[in-house]
């Protein structure tokens, strides 16, 4: 899988978030989008995910040299961000069963196994709405990391996690990210220090 951004710029009204970003992302590599709050790293990640449109420029997706239409890119991407909503009226088990109808599980994983891996087996039949913010973040990460997609996009993945949760996150990525394209938007080193390439958003102001 390859994602190319060409001369990408984004403006909100009169404010330019970033300009003329040209980058290439490839399977088997991990990338960190770095910068202070407001630098545009989360916006760029959402544009790459197809969730927002750029003001100018193109995002091109390809696999084995064949271009992938932008309208089908969601099939190839898993995305996680703190602002994502979970269905709070569902139990954890129901939520994961529902989610993985749309994104297949990685081989050799099960819903039960994932619930145990994220340490929430005692809450399997509890409603998401009663979860703490840290528990919800683990569920959001599980939905993305354990989905069988070639691209994994994570925005501030350790938000609301305690130190144990951070270690879990790092272990899950080590276990599940080989042979995937991983992009992490962050300004916290513990979230990205294992990435092979760093991209500083201030370079595109």
Task: Please characterize this protein's 3D structure.
With 205 residues, the chain is an alpha/beta fold. It has a single domain, classed as P-loop containing nucleotide triphosphate hydrolases (Rossmann fold). It has 6 helices and 9 strands. It has helices at residues 41-48, 92-99, 111-117, 133-145, 163-176, 189-192, and strands at 2-12, 15-26, 30-34, 56-63, 66-68, 77-80, 151-155, 181-186, 197-200. The strands form 2 sheets. It has a 5-stranded parallel beta sheet, sandwiched between helices. The longest helix has 14 residues, at 163-176.
Ordered list of secondary-structure elements with their pairings:
Elements: E1 2-12, E2 15-26, E3 30-34, H1 41-48, E4 56-63, E5 66-68, E6 77-80, H2 92-99, H3 111-117, H4 133-145, E7 151-155, H5 163-176, E8 181-186, H6 189-192, E9 197-200
Parallel strand pairs: 3-8, 3-9, 6-7, 7-8
Antiparallel strand pairs: 1-2, 1-4, 4-5
Helix pairs in contact: 4-5
Name the descriptors.
205 residues, alpha/beta, Rossmann fold, 5-stranded parallel sheet, 4-stranded antiparallel sheet, 6 helices, 28% strand
Query: Which CATH architecture is right?
Result: 3-Layer(aba) Sandwich
Helix content: 25-40%
Low-confidence stretches: none
Largest sheet: 5 strands, parallel
CATH class: Alpha Beta
Number of alpha- plus pi-helical segments: 6
Short description:
With 205 residues, this protein is an alpha/beta fold. It contains 6 helices and 9 strands; from the N terminus they run E-E-E-H-E-E-E-H-H-H-E-H-E-H-E.
């Amino acid at each position: 899988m390859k994602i190319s951004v060409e001369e990408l710029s984004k403006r909100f009204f009169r404010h330019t978030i970033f300009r003329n970003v040209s980058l290439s992302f490839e399977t088997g590599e991990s990338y960190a989008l770095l910068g202070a709050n407001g630098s545009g790293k989360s916006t760029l990640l959402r544009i790459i995910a197809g969730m927002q449109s750029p003001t100018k420029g193109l995002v091109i997706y390809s696999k084995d040299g064949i271009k992938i239409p932008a309208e089908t890119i969601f099939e190839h991407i898993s995305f996680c961000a703190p602002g994502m909503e979970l269905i709070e009226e569902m139990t954890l088990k129901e939520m994961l069963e529902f989610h993985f109808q749309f994104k297949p599980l990685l081989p050799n994983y099960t819903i039960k196994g994932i619930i145990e891996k994220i340490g929430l087996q005692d809450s399997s039949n509890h409603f998401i709405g009663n979860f703490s913010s840290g528990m919800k973040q683990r569920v959001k990460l599980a939905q993305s990391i354990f989905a069988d997609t070639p691209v994994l996009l994570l925005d501030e993945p350790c938000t609301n996690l305690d130190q144990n949760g951070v270690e879990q996150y790092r272990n899950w990525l080590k276990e599940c990210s080989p042979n995937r394209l991983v992009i992490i938007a962050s300004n916290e080193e513990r979230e990205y220090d294992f990435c092979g390439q760093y991209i500083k958003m201030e370079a595109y102001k």
